[in-house]
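User: Need the bound-state model for pyridoxal-5'-phosphate:
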Amino acid sequence: MNLNPAGWRPRFPDADADPNAASGEEPATFTGNRGLQLEEALIFDIGSGDTCGVDLPQPAANAPVRLGGLERRSAIGLPGLSEPETVRHYTRLSRQNYGIDLGLFPLGSCTMKHNPRLNEKIARLPGFADIHPLQPESTIQGALAVMEELSAWLIALTGMHGVALSPKAGAHGELCGVLCIRAALEARGDLREVMLVPESAHGTNPATAAFAGYRVESIPAAADGRIDLAALQARLGPDVAGVMITNPNTCGLYERDLHAIADAVHAAGGFVYCDGANFNAIVGRVRPGDLGVDAMHINLHKTFSTPHGGGGPGSGPVVLSEALAPFAPLPCVTRRADGSLMLVEEESAADHLPQSLGRMSAFHGQMGMFTRALTYILSHGADGLFAASGDAVLNANYVLRSLEDVLDAPFAGSGPCMHEALFSDAGLAPGVSTLDIAKALIDEGFHPMTVYFPLVVHGAMLVEPTETESKAALDQFIAALRSVALRAKAGDPSLCNAPHFAPRTRLDETQAARKPVLVHPGTQAP
Ligand SMILES: *Cc1c(COP(=O)(O)O)cnc(C)c1O
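Assistant: Bound-state model below.
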């Protein structure tokens, strides 16, 4: 029997040795597998460069080459695997991962809610799934109607004037919104240099402003975790293009002064960008347009249940005020006088959107996500969306109030939180950190919460349970986090190298990101 076929290495190279003789502590297995938790080699170790999963005919010796001298002369260096090897490799890896279909996924600011299967069913209808962006318009009227109806819902829910569907994620939507602000200022010959961003902002906000050519200045927070209105007003002036504000903010608090902030910014000639990543807390209850917002992205993959993380892709439509809508990107959907739907592209922009800032992406956006988000919206209806935001806030407050006696909750005195509960590392035993708590949660069978964000709180832990968790699921999570928090306060040394039960234990994450080891030690790099 060949115990070592190509690419497969026993965890214990001496096949005759007793795997348990060496350690004496934890029982080991010959393969390194632990029951159904399979030890999987790297793909470059399994696949050899000269294997191919499909049978392709050899190109004819005299076949004409039409690549103008660009054809590859050396091997491409990809691992070659058969179909079953490929399927098993990725299935085994997927079983080492955590997903929303496995359990509660408390990542704050990410809104990791259940992805309803109805969304998937509708998105897979061939009329949506099998169309091409360059198909004749007359053959995609149904898809355009989905885009139009989704647009109408997003506008109604936000109280805004227009929407650009094409941005591919939240950060891309931010760029779209800030470029609209830039275009509006340029159109009135008013070049401004500064974008104001609160200290608690998501990192994408200052990155977006800088990428769009603005100098970023930060606005301090008041002691209650909200923007310091007086400090903001004092900084406004003719050089300020606008502010980027998240509401509810990243401390999980509602920015009560947003209306006053918007009035002050507008009076100073600037625009208000709202980061809408936390929209799930207020859907159906607050319309950002009523608060004076000029542009806001909506993460369909957060608020409207389309998958994200490994399940991607994202989608970040941007809703725009009357002042910014004329500068929206191409393409967009509009209706002709005869009632048919059309896409406004470069050729037709002069008639429909003459001040458009141009194209943000090659085509129309993430069609599959539009279909899923609209399915979610229609299956909930207005009353269902209203209930969802209420339950998201209720669940977060349940987590906050259930844990504030064992974990420091810096803004618990600022009133109820919105959709996420924020804790700090104050009161943990010396030598125990937020990271240790997060890693210990993995041993308890949960994905960790967001850690070290927002930056305004030391050792932040941000928990967003979302509305899709039952009370039983929340109680189990709270009990697990409570027990880990108590161990952290008591200084339990075993926390410092948790997780103990994961396929891989504590990693040097910086090294792993900067210098990933992509081949098995001792194997030749491809
Ligand atoms: C998720 C998030 C973003 C960025 O959205 P992506 O879709 O990941 O690009 C921006 N701001 C906040 C507050 C977020 O939570």
